[in-house]
Amino acid sequence: MQTLSSINNGDSVIVSQIGESSLKVKLMEMGLIEGKRLQVLYRAPFGDPIAIDVDGYVLSLRNDEADLITVQLIEE
After folding, report:
1. Residues 14, 69: contact at Cβ < 8 Å?
2. I want to staple 4 with a disulfide (CB 3.0 to 4.6 A). Which of 31, 47, 64, 66 is the partner?
3. Count of CB atoms within 10 A of residue 62's CB?
């Protein structure tokens, strides 16, 4: 398993788990729940933050936030 912060631009993933953190509820409220399909769109010039597509809207996460999200890569 990988974390969302390690996924390359353009790759799609399925959320496997969100690590325990004070941010967990907020991430879930933004649509990052187990089984959700996401796509990494792009990264800022220095790699932080990253932009992901969640059900048609763009969500920006810092790498430390994306490190909390365990994902499984979708092979297409």
Report:
1. no
2. 66
3. 12
Helices (H) and strands (E) in the chain, counts: 2, 6
Q: In sequence order, what are the beta bridge partners of 41?
A: none
Question: Which residue's entry shows tokens 């792009």?
Answer: 42
Q: Cα(first)–Cα(last) distance of the chain, in Å?
A: 17
- CATH superfamily of the 2-73 domain: Ferrous iron transport protein A (FeoA) (2.30.30.90)
**pTM for this predicted structure:** 0.90
Residue 45 preceded by cis peptide, ω within 30 = no
